[in-house]
Amino acid sequence: MTRVRPLLRRPLRAAAAVFLASTSVWAAAELYGKPLRGLTRVPLATLLAEEARYAGKAVRVSGTAAAEPGAVVLKDGDAAVPLRTDGTFSLPEGLAGGAVTAEGKLQRGEKDGLAFVATGVEVQR
C-alpha cells in the first residue's frame, strides 16, 4: 500500500498544477461588452491601409492600449486608431500599457474621424 500512494500523488500534483495555471490565465483577462466570437484577426496596419475593403465588416484587432486625453488609442507598431465602444458598455480608466483584443468595425464619423468601434474587448494587464 505504501507504494500506491506516491504513484497517485504525482498525477494529482500535475492535475493541480494544470488547473492553477489555467485559472490564472483566465483571471488575468478582463472582458468588457459582448464575449469575443473568434473573428478573423486583421493586423491594424492592414485594416487602416485597406479601409474600403473592411468597411462594414466585423473583425478582430489587437494591440497595446495607449492613453490619450479623453480617449483610448489602440496601437500596433506604427499603426494607431482610437478605440471606442458601441455604447452598450464602457471601458475603465487606466488601460494604458494593457494588451487589448477587440472585435467590432472600423467606422468613419463625420465629426470625430476614423475609429474602431468595439462590441467586445478583452484586456490583459
Written overview of the protein:
This protein is of the alpha+beta class. Helix content is 28%, strand content 41%. The protein contains 3 helices and 6 strands; from the N terminus they run αβααβββββ. Strands 2-3-4-6-5 form a 5-stranded mixed β-barrel. The longest helix is centred in the N-terminal third of the chain and has 25 residues. The chain is globular. About 6% of the residues have low confidence.
By secondary-structure content and strand pairing, the structural class works out as alpha+beta
Shape: globular
In what range is the share of β-strand residues? 35-45%
Q: In total, how many beta strands? A: 6
H/E order of the elements?
A: HEHHEEEEE
Total number of helical segments?
A: 3
Straight-line N-to-C gap = 47 Å
**Average pLDDT metric:** 85
Computed over alpha carbons, the radius of gyration is 20 Å
The CATH superfamily is known as Nucleic acid-binding proteins
Q: Tell me roughly what share of residues is in helical segments.
A: 25-40%
The main sheet comes to:
5 strands, mixed, barrel
CATH fold field value: OB fold (Dihydrolipoamide Acetyltransferase, E2P)
Assigned CATH architecture: Beta Barrel
What is the CATH class? Mainly Beta
